[in-house]
Hints:
By secondary structure, chain A is mainly alpha-helical. Chain A has helices at 2-5, 15-38, 53-76, 87-108, 117-120, 127-156, 162-172, 180-214, 227-253, 260-291, 294-304, 309-329, 337-359, 380-403, 410-413, 421-424, 428-438.
Amino acid sequence: MEKEQGQAPISSYSWQWYGSLGVLVSAGVVGGIYRAWQGLAVTHLSSYTPWGLWVALYIYFVGLSAGAFLLSSLVYVFGQERFERIGRQALWVAVVSMVVALTFILLDLGHMERFWVSLRFWKLTSVLSWEVHFYIVYVVLLLTELYHSMRRDLVLRRQAPGIRGLLARYLTWQDEEISPAAQARDRQHLRRLGMIGIPLAVLGVHGGTGTLFAVVKARPYWNTAVFPIIFVLSALVSGTALLLVGYVLERRRRRLSADLDMVQGLARLMATFILLDLGLEFYEILIPAYSLRSEEMASLKTLFLGSLAPYFWIGQIWLGNITPLILVFSSRTGRSLRALTWAGILVVLGIVAVRINIVLPPLLQPVLPGLPAGAYFPSPVEVITSVGVIALGLLLYTLGNSLLPLEVSEADHKVTDPTRLPDSFPTKAAAIEGVGHGE
Amino acid sequence: MSLATKSQTLAEGPGAVKKAGGGMGPRWAMVIDLAKCVGCDTCTVSCKAENRTPPGVSYNVVLELEEGEFPNVRRVNIPRPCMHCDNPPCVQVCPVGATYKLENGIVAVDYERCLGCRYCITACPYGARSFDFGWNYDEEMLGYSAQQASEYGVPHGRREKGKSPVGNVRKCHFCLHRLERGEEPACVETCLGDARYFGDLNDSESMVSKLVASPRAYRLKEELGTNPRVYYLK
């Protein structure tokens, strides 16, 4: 117990880490200011290819968020104890990813100062309008759920010195109740919020983001009913992979051994999602190809042989799908922590290619014969701001990890079975005593 | 017949204008006779002059296509303004209702509300929408930025970075400001071969009403169900 409350295992992140993130975030801020000043003329977007890197990264991070959240619901709704260790991490990753995603969409607006207009008007026919509102509700739900998942540990930290104690006191405010009944209430809140959150994440947040593209009948490549489902599946793929990587790296940083069984469980889950995703993508490609319609063939040609072919074959298929599947299912690497982590890293990177291949192919085709074809490669400003926004996400993730009790302590890990909770949990008095000992 | 002006729309909101549509006012439509189009691009140029559109923004373009195989080829020129669809996909997707249909059928953009998210550009099956990236013709044309056209009948003043319509999506509006003065759209008036006709579909005696009934009449991508207000004569 002392170990947990006294923060002993938390080694601070190195100054090199904060320093490099600081440099990247500053570069992004400079790029962002330049972009705000000069408008979208600093991008390589055009009226023919109106969306590019920022939109691809926006859907990428919405996907990470939805995937991470759905994984957290395995713990809080479906009681999958083996993933308990990453429940809070998953919620925090979901929150940070949404912040990153919304920053990308803000950068992409022609009039950034009018972003609030999208909240003021709720246009019922517009999927994007629904999405914006869903995102807000979803982030509020994530934060509430995160609070309840950490509440006990926050209360225990109220006496802790420094900024962690201050944050704990501020967040818990007057609430010091950690009796078994209060903890049972927390779990119930988590379960209920998770149950509301699942349809919200699947239909609203990520399926909805897929729907945003799927309803566009002007672009046959997007305009399929399977598109939103692929979105949800690829969200699960990327969310699972990111949590796997995050968990292993975080344990390594703290010089603690990782739970190989759980990592393997996550890796297998990820591989299952990849297989399902591949199956759906097969139909997604077969059916338009079978139609032989010129506009469908043109999009597929860009994807398979054209300018996007490297993203597709190398990024999406080879790095994102085949290599991770081999790493997870091969008997030689299937129980190697290093190999599984690499599988996760490859998937996290490969899904970026997937997102690019969602946004760009139809935007490189002219909608009418005779109109010019689009062409797009991100401009330096687009790249710098993107790196900056991602670094901002990493910074938020890091700060959360170092300031909030996102790690489930070793002592608590085994006792997730609700029936065993009351006697194995410390009473409030004992817990506070524990804090004293720790200091 | 009074046209719904932008100030009216702003006062009553786009919904109000829609509800008011009882078939009393004009229902504007355009007919383009492809057999008469010589592909001179006068419509494109006069539109740019009329609306003082910046580089990269063209409300009207002429698509030049070659049909058939050598030696049996023929050139077809398809002028493409906004189709002013009766089921406009751009209006459906706009998250803030900044683009909407007026009572007279014109699809308008409210520059002061548009966020510049460009969802409508991706949704338009005709490529009729452009984003204003803020470029200008100041080097080619003295005082280009000093005054902008009074699109939708509202003065937009100087052209400045970050000020609407820069950062907005822009499109053909059938020269609404000219219609309000009783004039035809610029492209119709300047067409060399008189290939364009403009008029009221609610008036069964109008030229457009008669031409639309011709067996030569067709519309682009009719299978999408957008119901364009621009008809072509084969």
